[in-house]
Structures are given as C-alpha cells and as structure tokens.
C-alpha cells in the first residue's frame, strides 16, 4: 500500500524525531561512557564511584537533599545500592557537566567576526546530524503500524530515513561540510591558537578525506552501488561463485576495516590524531575562544561524527545489519533469531566501535603534525589505492 | 601581492604545558619555530635575598619552595652546606635516613616528570598511574615529617626525630610494588610506536653543547656524560651505597626518558640498601645553642633530581645568617638549553622539549 503524501510526511517526521532523539541521547551518553571507560583504565576515583559505591554512599548521606545536586546524589546513592543501577555510578558528574555547559557565560571575543563566530558551531553540528538522514539502522521496516492506528494503519515504519540511491555520496559530502565549521570558527575567533588549530584541522581533514573515501570505494566497487542498504546487505551476504574471489573479498574487507577506522579516527579529530585540539600545545585548538553551548556544539559534533564513522565501518566492513562480519555471513546460513534483529546487531557493532574510540584515547599518545601528514600521504593513500585496485580486480574476476 | 610574515606567539605564562608560569616567546614560520626565547621571572620571590635576613635554621624553610617537587633534595643541599660551613659532623644514622628520603624524593620528582611529560605528548594514562605511586611516597614523607610537599625534613646537624614506628614497613610495602609499576609505565610507552616517533631524535642536545651550557643531571647523562655528583663527590651516605649511573648516548628526548626511568630503578636500589643497612645510634649531633659563623665561604653541591643543585654561602662574623647566599639551580641553568634544542623544529617539539628538560619554575625564578 503506497502512503499518500500527508501520510508520508507524518511518518517521515516521526522517523526524524526518533533518529534525532536517538542521536541526541546517545551523544551525551557517550560522554558519560567516555568518562567512565577512561576512569576505569586510569584508576580515576570519581567517575566510577560518585554516588554509587561506598564513598558515594557517604557523600550522598552528607549532602542529601540540601542542594539540587546533593539531592540528586542522595537519589543516586539509593539507586546505586541496587546492583543493576550501579552502572549509573558517576552519573551526577555527567549531569553536573551538562548543567555547567548550559549555564556558562556565552562569550564572544571583542575582536571576533561575530556572525561567523556564532554560525560556525551550528554549521559543524548541523553537518554532523544531517548525515544520519542517509544512515540506515535496519534494512527494512522496523514494524508496521497496526490497523487500529488511525491514519497510519498498515504502513511500515522503516529503520532508515531515506533510501537514497546516492546515500554514501550524500554522507561523505555532508560530513566534509563539517570541517568548514571548524575552520571558520577558528578563523573568526581572531586569535593565534585557534588559528593554528584551524589550519591543522583543515590540512588534516582534507588529507584524510582522500584515503577515507578511497577505502569506502572498496565496498562501492564490490557491490556496484551507492545505496546504503543495498551496499551493506550485499557486503554482508554476497558470495562470489569463485572460492578464491570469495576469500579475497573477505580479506580485503578485513584490511579495509582497519584502514577505514584509522582514517575515521583522523577524520573525527580523535586521539592519536587529535592535533586540532591538542590541549598541551594549542591550549584547546580551534575552540579555544568558545564557551558554554557554542563550545558544546563542537563537542556534540565531534561525538556524533564518531557515531557516524562507527556506523559506516559497521555497515560496510563488519557485516552491517547481519551478525557475522567481513562478509562471512554469506558462507553460513543463519536462521531464526540469528538472522533476525538487524537493528540490534547494527547497534551492537556501533557501540563496540565507540568503545574502541574511548579505549584508544586512554592508551595512545598523539602524533606530531608532520608525522600525521606522513602517515596519511605516504602510507594510507598508497595503501588504499592498492586496495582499490585489488577490489576492482576482484569485481572483474567475479 | 602577498605578504608573508612570521607569527609571534606566546607560549605561556598561562598555558597547560609550560609547567607553571614559564613564558616562551616563539616565532613561527607555519609550525616551524624560527626563534625561541624563554622569558622567566613570573615566580620570582627573591629567596636568595630573603635568606640573608633569616637564620640558617629559618632559611631551610625557603628551600622547600624553590624546587617544590623535590623539597627534600633542597633541604639536604641546604643542611649539608650549612654543616660544611660550621664544620658539624652528622651521625651516620641521620645520613642513612637522609639518603633514603632523598632518593624517595628523586622517585617522586621523576614520577611527576614522567606523568606530565607523557601528558604533554598526549599519553594521558601514564599521568594518573605515576600520580598513584607518587601519592604513596608522599604519604611516606607525611609519616616521617608531617608534610607532603614542603617538608623541611632535616635539621642542621641531623634530624629532628628518628623514623616513626611502622615507617620501615610502609617504605618496604612501596618498594615491593614499585618495580612492577615502572614495568607498567614501560609497557605503555617504551615500545609504543607513536611515543618513539614523538621522542626519538626530538630536541637533541649533544654532550659538548650540554657541558658548554652548564646543563647537568639526566639531560647531560642522556647525552653520554656520566657526571653524577653522588659518584664524583659523594655526600650523605652515597659513598657506602652500591648503585649505577645510567647513561645514554643519543641525547634526545627518548634517551632522557630511558635515563630517568633507569634512575628510578637505581633510587629504588639505594632505598633498599638504606633500609637494610640502617645503623643504630643518635640522629642528631650536639650543636651549640647559637650558630655563629666565621667569615668563610662554602659551596656545596648535591645531585638533585634535575641536576647539580649547589648552595653557596658566605658567612659573616658574629651573624646567624649568611652574608650572601646563592642557589645554583639546575632548572634555571638547564632551561637555557631550550632555544638550542628547539630552534628550527616544530611547535609540538617545543612542548616535548620543555617536558623533557623537567624544569620547575619555582626553582628557575627563585
């Protein structure tokens, strides 16, 4: 049954609300997770205990109900005693962090270019969020509205917003707009440290865009499509008739995954490629002059592009909406539940990759600017070119 | 049509990785440093002048506040210098305890260096691991003298008190754990590709330049010289200790990293020897009620964690204070190697160079 235009618009709106709501919830939760993961790695005491463990218990009693955060602490202490809720330890820190960002004074430097200064965080954030329009969380309908639902009865609620036939192109295009937010923001600040951070960022993102795109061309060549759903499904389940080709395909996906993820780390300005905001060199890099919510826009944009990178890596290299990664799903036929809940498999992969982002941050030092460029131009670009040629040969052989 | 100019940038005095209030004026061509001028004096308190008005007993308190992460080393330099000036003989047990605490202090100082240096290069985890162990040593200091940072640990002529009960157990507990902790830092850094890339060949200083600039301590030893005052002119109980002086020949940031890690292991050895061989006896020499100096001069140097720490006293007849006092501060003298190490290199290397020189601004400015 084809929906009418009004029905289509209503469902799309609902989907936008759900997807955006999901991303907007996930991003803050990711900062919470980052705080906790890093705290566990680095034996930090606060973030793993606040109002949850024994210390939290004492704190909670001391401050119970006297202040807003104190009351919250008390509540958290109470919840933290239940084993399931103990995962929430450290939550008051996260809430305080969010409140802090909301209530900080919003400063626009006197010598800044005001219009650009205000617009660029929005540009970064909008670009980071718009990407989700083309990302598919499940290849088909998540559910169908029951007949009893007025107006929408019998219509499917899809796991994606749009089924663009140039989905990947759209994602890459929009994602690269994000760098304008950073560069313009840095330039508009009219200050030296942001300028250096912005220049670094521009050079870095522009350089890494090349191997990133080249590594994504591998699935494009192998599937002959730019449609997100089609690519991810076919990457996961296609089996070429020739055995050698099938094995080569799996291997190239395996290598491609690491190459793509490396570029993704650089693309999102994360450790070990976080030179744009290298706090120990450039104070805070491009966002040195930003405060309050404007700063947190950049912050949210960075985290949501982490989700994007993880989503693309899962979709094209890790088997996407299917259980087994690297195209192995094609060799084995999984039935029942194991072939079923696509969205759960997909989200699980995204979360695992996000954990890797946090883990790497706690482990590795930072590259130097020229070394970063060397890694990009002398290592990743030749590598991805070779991969691209191999992928083309595989396609030809199949 | 186009005009190019070098950008002048102030690194500090308020900057996350200038370790205090160091200001470095940099001329940048892109990200390449063409000129580097360290500007100091933001923490100048006139310690040397103040000490002219303080008695020798009071002056020691000010030494805590020069290199504030190695207060016990400073205390040792001061009290031994004053003892030399008045010809006081300190009991052997006091020497042993002083040596032990000074070596523990070397460990804390190197841990602070390791943590902040790694943090500057972007490895944030080592920082917290290093501070975890540093806390433990600071608790040992607290058990000994009640203070964690500004210790004023020793007295002229010996110690104020003997070690408290339970002290030895506390130190041994730390000693038992510490070598594994160094292993832990090493697993994160020593063979890490990025760490090696960021440090090997970065901010080099050869032995010749180092000696010409007066650089001492681990920075000099990483360039191949084995000059260590503990061996060259033994003081306290070092003549009775068995330890090696770690050296490297590369003279770069990585070599300095290896030297300092090896020094922590040697300090660990010395502390164990002090505990095992701790002699019985008094910890305080008999002193006259009032110290009165004849006119004479004394220069006493010790091997502080940062390098040669020298105290130069000129006494005044009938006075209880020095007529003139000067501190040969290793941080101050090592810092002048910074332009040599960084000019023509990248901005990120300046940060690594400041970290690897291990300067404490309290000592630079005094």
Report what the structure shows.
The complex is a heterodimer of chains A (398) and B (366). Chain A is mainly α and 398 residues long. Chain A contains 13 helices and two strands; from the N terminus they run αααααββαααααααα. Chain A has helices at 5-41, 54-63, 68-80, 91-103, 114-130, 167-189, 192-223, 228-237, 243-267, 279-282, 292-316, 342-363, 369-397, and strands at residues 136-144, 156-160. Chain A has a two-stranded antiparallel sheet. Residues 52-65 of chain A have low confidence and may be disordered. Chain B is mainly alpha-helical. Chain B has one domain: Cytochrome-c3 Hydrogenase, chain B (Orthogonal Bundle). Helices cover 49% and strands 11% of the residues of chain B. Chain B has helices at residues 47-52, 56-63, 71-86, 92-121, 124-145, 167-189, 193-199, 207-213, 218-221, 229-232, 253-276, 330-335, 338-342, 347-357, 361-365, and strands at residues 7-11, 23-29, 32-39, 297-304, 307-314, 324-328. In chain B, the strands form two sheets. Chain B has a three-stranded antiparallel β-sheet with strand order 1-2-3. In chain B, strand 4 (297-304) and strand 5 form a beta hairpin. In chain B, helix 2 (56-63) packs antiparallel against helix 3 (71-86), helix 5 (124-145) runs antiparallel to helix 6 and helix 6 packs antiparallel against helix 11 (253-276). The radius of gyration of chain B is 21 Å and the shape is globular. The mean pLDDT of chain B is 87. The A-B interface holds A 38, 41-44, 192-193, 196, 200, 271-272, 274-275, 278-281, 283, 361-371 and B 7, 9, 15-17, 28, 31, 118-125, 127-129, 132, 188-189, 192, 194-195, 197-198, 346-349, 351.
């Amino acid at each position: 049954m084809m929906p009418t235009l009004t029905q289509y618009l209503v469902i799309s709106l609902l989907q936008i609300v759900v997807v955006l709501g999901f991303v907007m919830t996930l991003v803050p939760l990711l900062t919470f997770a980052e705080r906790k993961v890093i705290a566990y790695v680095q034996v930090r005491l606060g973030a793993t205990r606040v109002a949850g463990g024994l210390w939290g218990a004492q704190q909670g009693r001391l401050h119970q109900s006297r202040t807003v955060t104190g009351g919250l602490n008390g509540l958290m202490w109470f919840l933290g005693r239940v084993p399931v809720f103990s995962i929430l330890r450290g939550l008051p820190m996260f809430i305080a962090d969010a409140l802090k960002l909301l209530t900080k004074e919003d400063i626009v430097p006197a010598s800044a270019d005001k219009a650009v200064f205000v617009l660029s965080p929005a540009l970064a954030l909008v670009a980071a969020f718009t990407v989700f329009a083309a990302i598919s969380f499940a290849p088909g309908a998540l559910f169908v509205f029951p007949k009893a639902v007025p107006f929408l009865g019998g219509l499917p609620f899809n796991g994606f917003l749009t089924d663009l036939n140039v989905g990947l192109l759209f994602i890459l295009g929009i994602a690269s707009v994000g760098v304008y937010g950073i560069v313009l923001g840095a330039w508009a600040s009219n200050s030296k440290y942001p300028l250096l951070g912005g220049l670094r960022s521009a050079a870095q993102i522009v350089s890494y865009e090349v191997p990133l795109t080249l590594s994504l061309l591998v699935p494009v060549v192998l599937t002959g499509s730019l449609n997100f759903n089609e690519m991810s499904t076919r990457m996961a389940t296609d089996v070429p008739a020739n055995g050698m080709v099938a094995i080569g395909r799996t291997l190239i996906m395996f290598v491609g995954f690491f190459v793509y993820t490396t570029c993704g780390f650089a693309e999102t300005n994360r450790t070990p490629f976080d030179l744009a905001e290298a706090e120990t060199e450039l104070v805070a890099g491009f966002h040195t002059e930003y405060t309050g919510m404007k700063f947190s826009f950049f912050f949210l944009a960075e985290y949501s592009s982490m989700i994007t990178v993880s989503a693309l890596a899962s979709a094209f290299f890790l088997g996407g909406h299917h259980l087994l990664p690297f195209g192995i799903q094609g060799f084995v036929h999984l039935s029942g539940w194991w072939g079923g809940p696509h969205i759960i498999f997909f989200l699980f992969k995204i979360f695992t990759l996000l954990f890797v982002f946090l883990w790497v941050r706690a482990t590795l030092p930072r590259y130097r600017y020229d070394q970063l460029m060397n890694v990009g131009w002398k290592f990743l670009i030749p590598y991805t070119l070779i991969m691209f040629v191999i992928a083309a040969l595989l396609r030809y052989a199949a | 049509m186009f005009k190019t100019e070098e950008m002048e940038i102030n690194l500090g005095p308020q900057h996350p990785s200038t370790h205090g209030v160091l200001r470095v004026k940099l001329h940048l061509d892109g990200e390449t440093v063409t000129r580097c001028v360290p500007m100091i004096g933001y923490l100048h308190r006139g310690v040397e002048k103040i000490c002219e008005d303080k008695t020798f007993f009071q002056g020691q308190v000010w030494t805590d506040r020069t290199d504030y992460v190695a207060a016990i080393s400073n205390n040792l330099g001061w009290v031994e210098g004053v003892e030399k000036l008045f010809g006081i003989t300190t009991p052997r047990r006091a020497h042993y305890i002083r040596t032990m605490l000074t070596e523990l202090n070397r460990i804390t100082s190197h841990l602070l260096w390791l943590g902040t240096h790694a943090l500057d290069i972007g490895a944030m985890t080592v920082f917290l691991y290093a501070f975890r162990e540093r806390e433990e040593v600071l608790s040992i200091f607290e058990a000994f003298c009640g203070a964690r940072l500004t210790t004023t640990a020793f007295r002229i002529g010996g110690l104020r008190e003997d070690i408290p009960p339970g002290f030895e157990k506390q130190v041994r507990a730390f000693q038992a754990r510490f070598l594994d902790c160094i292993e832990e830092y090493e697993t994160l850094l020593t063979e890490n590709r990025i760490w090696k890339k960021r440090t090997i060949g970065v901010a080099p200083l050869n032995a010749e330049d180092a000696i010409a600039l007066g650089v001492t301590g681990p920075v000099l030893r990483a360039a191949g010289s084995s000059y260590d005052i503990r061996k060259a002119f033994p003081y306290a109980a070092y003549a009775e200790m068995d330890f090696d002086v770690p050296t490297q020949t590369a003279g770069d940031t990585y070599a300095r990293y290896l030297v300092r890690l090896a020094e922590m292991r040697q300090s660990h050895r010395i502390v164990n020897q002090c505990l095992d061989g701790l002699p019985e006896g008094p910890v305080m020499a008999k002193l006259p009620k009032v110290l009165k100096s004849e006119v004479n001069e004394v220069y006493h140097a010790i091997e502080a964690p940062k390098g040669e720490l020298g105290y130069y006293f000129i006494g005044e007849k009938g006075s209880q204070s020095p007529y003139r006092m000067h501190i040969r501060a290793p941080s101050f003298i090592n810092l002048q190697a910074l332009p040599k190490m960084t000019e023509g290199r990248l901005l990120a290397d300046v940060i690594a160079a400041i970290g690897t020189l291990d300067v404490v601004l309290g000592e630079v400015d005094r």
